[in-house]
């Protein structure tokens, strides 16, 4: 369960669930969206898959009350880039005589990280953690911490690409983390402050990795201890006792102890560990088609240039 560090958000469970095919029309921008289906639900609102115009799909988050979405909207518009849009529209809609705020963002196709790993195998954990570090590094470079790293906020596409969703917990570096989930929160583990910084998110990635690799039962048994008995060392011990953690043990240890200053540094070391281990060979065929294609086309180009030069 996500926790708000500043204020508690009153969830209005009474908001009507929109049926498939329902229309949502923005009062100010006058854009209309058709609901395809419900994608998910959180404390701030419900997220629907919608189509706009020529079948273009997007994700629309309908908030429970006027204040709940504003900070998310502000943040997404601050992150917006021409080559990488985060926010497509923000408006209010009138539904059943009441006004609700909503915003529209790119639709991320995929399943929750836990469902993906359950289906495709535990070795994917190593790959997905690496991708998470890369996504976080991108965000950190703009001066933001993600905050609420948890399985519900990580979607993985069919081809195995991980994407972070739910930017409601993103906080400026140096501020307090706005939203977090206890299991992955270093404050909960007495392993550091709730200051938004790179090491906060890196800890959460390591805690998530450890929970996935060691198993929920063993991880949660430690999480359920009384506060005085929860500590970083406890997690490090769990990592050491778990054979599946071995390939990335040095990363887990450093991340849990807050010894990485940047996601980039963590990522470099993480990549080296995977290379050294070499245990992901079984997954490589999944990546091979485009690699092979790239190799063949550069080889053909090389031979053609050589032929031209020699003739
Ligand atoms: N852009 C998106 N594309 C596809 N699915 C999405 C997208 N954004 C959110 N979802 C789905 O909707 C769910 C709820 O969305 P979100 O996490 O933003 O709500 P929330 O109210 O902030 O939740 P929480 O209480 O966890 O903070 C997500 O777990 C995810 O499954």
Structural class by SSE content: alpha+beta
Strand content: 15-25%
Mean pLDDT across every amino acid position: 89
Rough shape? globular
Indicate the CATH architecture of the largest domain. Orthogonal Bundle
Q: Pick out the low-confidence regions.
A: 5-13
Secondary structure: helix percent: 25-40%
Straight-line N-to-C gap: 69 Å
The CATH homology group name of the largest domain: Transferase(Phosphotransferase) domain 1
Strand order of the largest sheet: 2-3-4-5-7-6
CATH top level of the largest domain?
Mainly Alpha
Number of helices: 9
Write down the Rg: 22 Å
Bound molecules: adenosine-5'-triphosphate
Domain Protein kinase: 33-275
Transmembrane segments: 290-310
Protein name: Protein kinase domain-containing protein
Binding site for ATP: 61
Could you describe the 3D structure shown?
- With 311 residues, this protein is α+β, with helices and mostly antiparallel strands.
- The protein has two domains: 12-106, Phosphorylase Kinase, domain 1, CATH 3.30.200.20; 111-277, Transferase(Phosphotransferase), domain 1 (Orthogonal Bundle), CATH 1.10.510.10.
- It has helices spanning 70-79, 113-120, 124-140, 198-214, 216-223, 232-241, 249-256, 263-277, 288-310, and strands spanning 2-4, 23-25, 32-41, 45-52, 56-63, 89-95, 98-106, 111-112, 144-145, 154-156, 162-164, 171-172, 179-181.
- α4 (198-214) packs across α5 (216-223) and α6 (232-241) runs antiparallel to α7 (249-256).
- It is globular, with a radius of gyration of 22 Å.
- Residues 5-13 have low confidence and may be disordered.
- It binds adenosine-5'-triphosphate (ATP).
- Adenosine-5'-triphosphate is lined by residues 2, 39-45, 47, 59, 61, 105, 107-108, 152-153, 155, 165-166, 168.
């Amino acid at each position: 369960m996500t926790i708000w560090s500043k204020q508690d958000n009153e969830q209005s469970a009474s908001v009507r669930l929109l049926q498939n095919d329902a229309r949502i029309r923005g009062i100010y921008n006058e854009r209309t969206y058709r609901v395809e289906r419900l994608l998910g639900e959180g404390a701030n609102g419900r997220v629907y898959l919608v189509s706009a115009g020529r079948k273009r799909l997007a994700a629309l988050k309908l908030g429970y009350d006027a204040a709940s979405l504003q900070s998310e909207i502000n943040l997404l518009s601050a992150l917006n880039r021409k080559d990488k849009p985060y926010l497509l529209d923000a408006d209010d809609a009138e539904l059943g005589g009441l006004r609700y705020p909503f915003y529209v963002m790119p639709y991320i196709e995929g399943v929750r990280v836990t469902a993906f790993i359950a289906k495709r195998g535990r070795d994917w954990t190593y790959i997905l953690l690496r991708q998470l570090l890369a996504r976080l590094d991108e965000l950190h470079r703009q001066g933001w911490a993600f905050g609420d790293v948890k399985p519900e906020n990580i979607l993985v596409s069919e081809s195995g690409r991980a994407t972070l969703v739910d930017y409601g917990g993103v906080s400026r570096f140096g501020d307090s983390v706005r939203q977090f989930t206890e299991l992955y929160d270093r404050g909960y583990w007495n392993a550091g402050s709730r200051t938004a910084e790179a090491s906060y998110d890196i800890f959460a990635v390591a805690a998530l990795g450890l929970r996935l690799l060691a198993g929920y039962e063993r991880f949660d048994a430690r999480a359920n201890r009384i506060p005085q008995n929860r500590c970083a060392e406890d997690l490090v011990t769990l990592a050491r006792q778990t054979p599946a953690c071995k390939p990335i043990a040095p990363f887990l240890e450093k991340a849990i102890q807050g010894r990485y200053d940047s996601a980039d540094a963590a990522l470099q070391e993480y990549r080296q560990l995977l290379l050294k281990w070499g245990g992901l060979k079984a997954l490589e065929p999944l990546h091979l088609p485009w690699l092979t294609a790239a190799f063949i086309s550069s080889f053909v180009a090389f031979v053609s240039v050589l032929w031209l030069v020699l003739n």
